[in-house]
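Entry:
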Amino acid sequence: ERAIRLLLSAPYHAVTLLWGAKHFGIYSAPVNDSIAFVANLGLGPNTNPQDTGAVNHYPCAGTTGAQAYAQGEIPSPFPSEPNPAWGQPIIVKGTSSLRVTGASLIGPEGEIKIKAVYAAGQAIDPNGYCREGWACVIPEPLRAGATYEVYLTWTDSNGSGASRFSFSTGER
């Protein structure tokens, strides 16, 4: 569980995990003083990724145990910053015409600064993962064991919409 949560806290790894694979396999094994973890995702021959045709996001409403603090993704979502850190990213998936028009995060101490919104119509993702139907809303590091309220607005080929939901971070 911890390994998957760490992958979901890295925006590019999260996009990969959430893209709609139909087959998923994991492997873990002790290696020296740590654990090696591998996740493989795939599709069968001549199949397309799963897609609801609607706007969805992770964390989902009511998610618990999300990462408060993350760093170390390769490639870095903030290549111009030495050793950048961020909080649990909000990954948004929609149709190829998705445009996130607003994003905010409210925590126990008030509004959380958003480091970046990588999406069509917003900042250009320096590594090209968060585009064409994907948005990565990446906040500053969050507080462990806290609840956060998220507000998103968007447009896509189905019209405009909004989501309001909450999630909480884990104690680690």
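DSSP finds two helices and twelve strands in the chain.
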